[in-house]
Amino acid sequence: MAEWVVVVDDDMMNVQMACVILGRNNMRATPLTSGTELIKFISKGNRPDLILLDVMMPEMDGFQTMEALRALEKEQEIPEIPVIFLTANDGGKVESKGLSLGAMDFIRKPFLPEVLVMRARHIVELVSLQRDLASEVKKKTKENEQLSVQVVQAMADAIDAKDTYTNGHSRRVAEYSWNIAERYGYSDKRQMDIYMMGLLHDVGKIGVPDEVINKPARLTDEEYETIKKHPEIGSRILEKIKAMPDLKTGARWHHEKYNGTGYPDGLKGEEIPEEARIIAVADAYDAMSSRRSYRNELSQEKVRSEIEKGKGSQFDPVFADIMLQMIDEDVNYDMREKK
Fold this sequence. Notes:
The chain is built from 14 helices and 5 strands. The chain is α/β, with parallel strands linked by helices. It folds into 2 domains: 4-135, Rossmann fold (3-Layer(aba) Sandwich), CATH 3.40.50; 161-329, Hypothetical protein af1432. The model has no long low-confidence stretch (mean pLDDT 88).
């Protein structure tokens, strides 16, 4: 496909000459005579491969046009169109200003045909290469993210396997946390972050003996103190993952309580990281709506009552209300462990 170049110059002779030169070299050229025309042209959805923009023009000069173009691209969330300035000025200040605004190159007027074609084609090819590279990096990043999620999910399943009564607990807590975060207005990235935190919130149970986790009877005080160590163990494990420094948030603080009576640090209210406050209510919901070694799952009415009762004491009221909304929408009590 032929490269598409828009030529903007208030001197019609320059515009026509440039368009003829480009056309003879199998490039599609569109002539415009002002910055205002260019902005209107782009705002209508036209996306040329390159803009040749004269610096000295009445009303809007090239620099003002460039600023307006970049603002429009940002507003419409479209990729930046490369710009080469056309100028008869040999001053360094002109080039410096143009480059600071994002210009790719300068062509002196009167221009030589071979220089015009060579530089125009070079910039189009360069930008195309950059976009292809960016697309490939984005693709690989997405693949790596998917791989990371799969690895973390496998790790979460391994953690849950220690407890014969909590099949899929970590995945459900992660999904409930994601749902709460989405309803609260988290960005897509923060939703994924909290999903990962939810998957690994119980990673510290690796350091708790199986006989304590699976004990069918009431825990002794000593056993309870042992199991209370899992947030700190999990935090120490996850803080070694330098690429995701916030990953430990859910593991360390999901047992803190809004009134400050939780563990391990006795944090209160907004001292508790927001993600941990979300995971706390998601974790409590799943614990109550699932079977445990010492009891069957609770009824939906009982679970709802306990969440309501814990607002402001155990749970952040905002996130508790979102969970209550999710419960009320779940008319068939499907949001629980699958038997």
